[in-house]
From TrEMBL:
UniProt keyword RNA-binding present: no
BP GO terms, sorted: carboxylic acid metabolic process
TM region positions: none
Enzyme Commission number(s) of this protein: 5.3.3.10
The Fumarylacetoacetase-like C-terminal domain, residue ranges: 43-235
A family per Pfam: FAA_hydrolase
Organism, scientific name: Archaeoglobus profundus (strain DSM 5631 / JCM 9629 / NBRC 100127 / Av18)
InterPro entries: Fumarylacetoacetase-like_C (IPR011234), Fumarylacetoacetase_C_sf (IPR036663)
Keywords of this entry: Isomerase, Metal-binding
Protein name: 5-carboxymethyl-2-hydroxymuconateDelta-isomerase
One of the record's GO molecular function terms: acetylpyruvate hydrolase activity
């Protein structure tokens, strides 16, 4: 595992183990800690409309190539942090996603080599002011508010062939899918994006959201789980 941990006033950044829900660093179990956002990306590259079930839900055609957009690093928050709903928006939605974290600088990567550049995966929530997205006709404002990029709690550094994702709102399952439903798989995304822009260590590719996106309200608790790893955030 890789991440950033606040422990008794000190920030630890690096590799650690998680054993039975306990965090172990260099053979020592630590207490009185909290997870910080696991990485500090220079950019968050998000993918629109990348699950078959989500395309069907929206009655939209399958894209011929990945649809990409960016979220700013200033939107990043971590596990157990608060999503703040902007007053200017009347509808804010959750979008649970699998995030891929880049492990080393890369450009013009070939699909067959793509996973060599991956540090690991984690959970991501592409929080969106849906009404502003519709109003603007493009996505920058709707996706970029502070706190609109929850990520974590840490990066799992071994990536299995199949990743399962589940989103829960106040304990109720609202999204459930896996990477077999992706329109463009992870190596394809890395090849496509790296042929447009240089990817730096710590950059994030948010691979898209499955069917079941919905509205958040103040007081909600939203959880995104990927293969047993859970990101939890509160809404106000």
């Amino acid at each position: 595992m890789f991440g950033r941990i606040l422990h008794r006033g000190e920030v630890y950044e690096g590799y650690f183990e998680v054993e039975g829900g306990r965090v172990v660093i260099d053979g020592y179990e630590i207490e009185d800690y909290r997870f910080l956002p696991p990485i500090k990306p220079t950019k968050i590259v998000c993918i629109g409309l990348n699950y078959m079930d989500h395309a069907e839900e929206l009655n939209m055609e399958i894209p011929e190539e990945p649809i990409i957009f960016l979220k700013p690093p200033s939107a990043v928050i971590g596990h157990e942090d608060v999503i703040v709903m902007p007053r200017i928006s009347k509808r804010v939605d959750y979008e649970g996603e699998i995030a891929v974290v880049i492990g080393k600088r890369c450009k013009n990567v070939k699909k067959e080599d793509a996973m060599d550049y991956v540090l690991g995966y984690t959970c991501f929530n592409d929080v969106t002011a849906r009404d502003l997205q519709s109003k603007d006709g493009q996505w920058t404002r709707a996706k970029s508010f502070d706190t609109f990029a929850p990520i974590g709690p840490y990066v799992v550094t071994e990536v299995p062939e199949k990743l399962k994702i589940e989103t829960r709102l106040n304990g109720k399952v609202v999204q459930k899918s896996d990477t077999s439903n992706l329109i463009f798989d992870i190596p394809t995304l890395i090849e496509f994006i790296s042929n447009i822009m240089t990817l730096e260590r710590g950059d994030v590719i948010a691979t898209g959201t499955p069917a079941g996106v919905g509205m958040l309200k103040s007081g909600d608790v939203v959880e995104v789980e990927v293969n047993g790893l859970t990101l939890r955030n509160y809404v106000r």
